[in-house]
Amino acid sequence: MLPVGAVLATIAVGMVAGVADAQTAPGVPSGLQAVGGYERLVLSWYPPVSDGGSAITGYQIVWTSTASVGMISGISQTTNAWTTHTLTGLTYGVVYSITVAAINSQGTGTPTSPVQGTPYTLPGPPVDLSGQLVDGYVTLSWLTPGAIGGATVTGYQIEGKPTESDVWNVTVLNTGSAATTHTFFLLPDGRTYDFRASAINAAGVGPASGSWLVTTPTTTTVPPTTTTVPPTTTTVPPTTT
Hints:
Layout: H1 4-21, E1 30-37, E2 40-46, E3 58-65, E4 74-77, E5 84-88, E6 96-104, E7 107-108, E8 115-117, E9 127-134, E10 137-143, E11 155-162, E12 169-172, E13 181-185, E14 192-201, E15 204-208, E16 212-215
Antiparallel strand pairs: 1-2, 2-5, 3-4, 3-6, 6-7, 6-8, 9-10, 10-13, 11-12, 11-14, 14-15, 14-16
């Protein structure tokens, strides 16, 4: 038989080992961010400091929207330890509140504090397009779209075409400014043109405005007329005295 002290020591070691081997649900992820995209939110975060003694196998993402206060809009569960995830099919302009919780073999851990994100979409068409032609330069003006798609308008694309054509050509790819006027040169060839404008935001180029029509003048170059007048020579006979 073992001495009483040895038996107690063996029991104590077993108890410590049992405590050391105990597994729990993982800790809380950190650094959660939600970046708006085209009708989506791109999420990223850092794994929890503690995995609870068991490898993290996925994450649970829960989101709610301002359109359904107090109700869960959706739950997604990943099946890997990646710390990024994209929520798609969201409504642009709606604010979403998101939490993320880590999962291991022992269950789902405590979720993060909620963060908010807003998806966006293409802007609407500019309105009230007008213009003027002065000395070969076209100046177009318009009003900002009634709906900008939940993201800032960063520029405008201008297209033009001869009126008889069905094909629009890009005249200005991106004005690079939210200003609602733009000037460019147009060759005076006597033709009639249509122009239109489209707003640009982070989602891309939106639908076009109504068109504005202008007819350019015809420039005719008349060569100068040169008249050559032959010199007149007068001969005076000598006078004899």
